[in-house]
Design goal:
With about 525 residues, the chain is an alpha+beta fold. It is built from 13 helices and 19 strands. Its cofactor is Ca(2+).
């Protein structure tokens, strides 16, 4: 046993992600694979529907670019069609295990209008929201620290008001009854209590596990979560191995607070982030082993990707907790910079797809929609704009390059051109991210509008360091015209839809809060799971 562990350790140090590497070696790598957004909620919406998030309303006009609460009313609209819904209609068993983060309820805590089961999945086990630093009371906080500061400020204001009224009353300088004194003091005590308990309230409100419509853990027991996820994946595969199935495994890794099992802590040379990545890679290996044991390997198409790039602002001191994006500029939440939207793309299907092939032309997470729909014998919806018709399997099998355009890039005559109309202002000046903020803004004073747009040749300059101009690039105007034409066509086909991430749909509403007891006593453990 000792020798076996030593070999595993040497193997992991030699190859940080041996199981993901094995997927890539046995399958096809997409080296210019692009997400539709640089943040999770809109990117996931686009992935599932094949439509840019602006078409489904999974955007905001005020800066809320992801869903902020489980108990908010925003989410993937019920009239959207996911590839899971189409595959279910074609007789596939459909399951989602892991993170959802596309909304839950609309009008009551039990209507589940945005729930995965209302979007084509037969089975769901996981987080209806997302893992956050606040789930573990981290210093890297999404909401808790800001809310504590606001509540403390209001407490101080009301406490000062109460003390002033008391002093004025006792000295007869302020003719006032005791009623406003008592009320201001009571409110001050409530605000102080709120600032003290808000962290625990967030943990209970957002950090929970559900099986279908039933809450199983509130709050989650993090050291049990990874075994529970793997157990659920194995159970789904065993139940459905004799028929067609679609299983979407949406890892909670590698997102702060980087919850990692004890046997992976300290193993990586890259700190806690590396530990968490290695644990995720081990999970990939466990899933591949299950497919082998159930005789499903040769009949199963596997797709591996990420919804966006690494989060550069997630750092404390010199320790990076949000990952890194190599040669690519920018990261999570930074508009269209490659570091935020260029993600891994791997397909594996033994005996069908050629092992070791590399596809370098631009592809999108949205391309998965027509790919799996056509593979299952379904039809892409004709009653709405689908933002891609590219079948990735046909691309891989035919190995043919295609000239095409999008709203921010053009692949033309073997060259991939990229334009930026708006970019965030990095802080401090000269930095490669918006340090001091949770994420870069996408509008207002902290962004730059470019006229003419910034142009890059990604084929020669994937790091986006050399801005091309009409003086330095002979086909500058032709490229700009093709991109502008794509933008005009995109805008022409947009229809007004409710914005799901605006303030009205993105504030916490107590009556929408999922709770496994009488609100606000939201605590339960209904499934003990693996020991």
């Amino acid at each position: 046993l000792t020798g076996s562990r030593d070999r595993d350790m040497l193997h992991l140090h030699h190859s940080w992600t041996p199981n993901i590497d094995r997927l890539a070696e046995d399958g096809v790598k997409l080296t210019q694979h692009i997400s539709a957004a640089s943040l999770c909620t809109p990117s996931r919406a686009a992935f599932l529907t094949g439509r840019y998030p602006v078409r489904s309303g999974m955007v905001s006009s005020i800066g809320y670019r992801v869903l902020q609460w489980t108990g908010a009313s925003g989410g993937l609209p019920t009239n959207e069609t996911t590839f899971a819904k189409i595959l279910k209609e074609k007789g596939y068993a459909t399951g989602l295990v892991g993170k959802w983060h596309l909304g839950l309820n609309c009008e009551s805590a039990s209507d589940h209008c945005h729930h995965p089961l209302h979007h084509g999945f037969d089975h769901f086990y996981g987080m209806p929201f997302s893992l956050m630093g606040d789930c573990a009371h981290w210093e890297l906080s999404e909401k808790r620290v800001n809310l504590e500061q606001k509540l403390n400020f209001l407490f101080q204001v009301l406490a000062l008001v109460a003390l002033t009224l008391v002093a004025g009353k006792l000295t007869h300088l302020i003719p006032v009854s005791w009623t406003p004194v008592i009320w201001s003091a009571l409110w001050a005590v409530l605000l102080l209590s709120g600032s003290y308990f808000v962290g625990a309230l967030i943990v209970h409100a957002d950090c929970l596990l559900m099986r279908n419509h039933t809450i199983t853990e509130q709050p989650m027991r993090f050291q049990k979560t990874t075994p529970l996820i793997l157990q659920e994946v194995a159970s789904f595969l065993k139940r459905n191995k004799h028929g067609p199935f679609l299983l979407f495994v949406s890892f909670l890794h590698v997102h702060i607070p980087l919850i990692t099992m004890e046997n992976f802590l300290g193993k990586s040379l890259h700190g806690l982030y590396g530990d968490n990545v290695e644990e995720m890679d081990w999970m990939v290996g466990q899933i591949l082993d299950t497919l082998d044991m159930e005789g499903l390997t040769n009949s199963t198409l596997i797709y591996f990707t990420s919804d966006h790039g690494g989060s550069l602002e997630n750092q404390l001191g010199r320790t990076q907790y949000g990952g890194w994006n190599g040669i690519y500029k920018g990261g999570k939440g930074m508009g269209g910079w490659e570091g935020g939207i260029r993600v891994p793309g791997i397909f594996r299907w033994p005996g069908v797809l050629p092992a070791g092939q590399v596809i370098g032309e631009p592809t999108s997470l949205m391309d998965v929609f027509p790919t799996v729909v056509q593979l299952a014998g379904g039809e892409v919806p004709q009653d709405r704009v689908i933002c891609t018709v590219k079948n990735l399997l046909a691309l891989v099998l035919n190995s043919q390059h295609s000239d095409h355009g999008s709203v921010h890039f053009v692949s033309w005559e073997g060259t991939t051109w990229k334009v930026h109309f708006v970019t965030p202002v990095f802080q401090p000046e000269g930095a490669g991210a918006c340090y001091g903020r949770k994420v870069c803004p996408c509008f207002g004073e902290k962004v730059l509008h470019h006229d003419p747009p910034l142009l890059f040749d990604l084929s020669r300059d994937p790091s986006e360091t050399h801005v091309l101009t009409s003086a330095s690039e002979p086909v500058f105007y032709q490229v700009m015209e093709r991109v502008q034409r794509a933008v005009r066509e995109h805008q022409r086909t947009l229809s007004p839809v409710p914005l799901q991430l605006d303030r009205l749909g993105n504030i916490w509403r107590p009556w929408l809060q999922p709770c496994c007891g009488p609100f606000p006593l939201c605590w339960c453990l209904r499934e003990d799971g693996p020991q």
